[in-house]
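FORM 12-B: Structure-to-Sequence Request
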């Protein structure tokens, strides 16, 4: 998959795609329906925005994203997307009228052959453009427009908001049913306090900055090492939280990979949340903490080997 960070200066091979367009936070089943409608004779593309427009307009608002750009790109690549256009959402792009966006970005810049959007898609300055406007502009500027129906589970539309709620309540399997995959946090392994190593449970530490956090606590997880000599799939247990045993700390994700030995610093991991095991706890001492970690790992191994 090729990733482009502008609509300008593209090679002929990067133009002319049939594209799904939206923010695609989580790449849930509703998003997949939009992407599937874009599949056809032209290369499959996705048009999205980075940062998320909501981050641009309200940078001080609480973190809400289910995925960072890396995780979204990894998921889209698995769906067969060939061209990913991560358009920089800045003051310039935010100022485009619906007509200017359709003409300068979609037609002249990306040269798309077709674009697929959800039924509730809005675009252009002030979100003034709706799907009816996009159809009219597509006819004027030479690209087809397809509108995807909203996808629901029973009577409830699948949405990033509903997925956030399930994760906040500690129900990753409910979230996975709407996502069509395990909820994942992707990123680089960074240096931490190395307490896990001292306790016999070395962990891979990852930042969760800018993300909506699932319920804090311990999870049974699936781990994919995406780069480096240890690339592959593993199972493990992860702690998401602030580590109350050791004072005030910023939230992070610490994952212990079962039956693994090796250096992961600087490598990129994808951690899939399968089951919530327990909330964070403050123990009376290290022996009690270590015993609980042993119990957590045994329970997580039993859950994951049964998948």
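FORM 12-B RESPONSE
SEQUENCE OUT:
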């Amino acid at each position: 998959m090729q990733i482009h960070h502008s609509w300008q200066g593209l090679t002929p091979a990067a133009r002319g795609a049939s594209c799904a367009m939206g923010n695609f936070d989580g790449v849930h089943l509703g998003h997949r329906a939009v992407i599937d409608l874009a599949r056809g004779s032209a290369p499959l593309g996705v048009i999205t925005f980075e940062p998320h427009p909501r981050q641009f307009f309200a940078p001080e608002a609480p973190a809400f994203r289910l995925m960072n750009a890396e995780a979204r790109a990894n998921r889209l690549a698995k769906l067969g997307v060939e061209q990913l256009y991560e358009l920089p959402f800045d003051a310039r792009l935010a100022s485009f009228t619906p007509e200017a966006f359709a003409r300068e970005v979609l037609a002249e810049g990306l040269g798309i052959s077709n674009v697929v959007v959800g039924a509730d898609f809005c675009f252009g300055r002030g979100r003034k453009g709706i799907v009816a406007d996009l159809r009219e502009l597509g006819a004027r500027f030479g690209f087809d427009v397809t509108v995807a129906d909203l996808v629901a589970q029973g009577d409830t539309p699948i949405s990033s908001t509903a997925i956030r709620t399930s994760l906040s309540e500690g129900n990753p399997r409910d979230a996975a049913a709407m996502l069509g995959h395990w909820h994942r946090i992707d990123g680089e392994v960074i240096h931490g306090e190395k307490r896990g190593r001292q306790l016999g449970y070395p962990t891979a530490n990852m930042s969760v900055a800018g993300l909506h956090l699932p319920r804090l606590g311990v999870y049974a997880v699936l781990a994919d090492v995406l780069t480096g000599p240890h690339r592959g799939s593993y199972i493990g247990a992860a702690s998401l939280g602030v580590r109350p045993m050791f004072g005030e700390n910023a939230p992070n994700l610490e994952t212990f990979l079962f039956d693994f030995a090796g250096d992961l610093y600087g490598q990129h991991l994808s951690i899939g949340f399968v089951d919530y095991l327990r909330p964070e706890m403050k123990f009376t001492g290290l022996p009690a903490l270590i015993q609980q970690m042993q119990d957590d790992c045994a329970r997580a191994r039993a859950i994951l080997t049964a998948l």
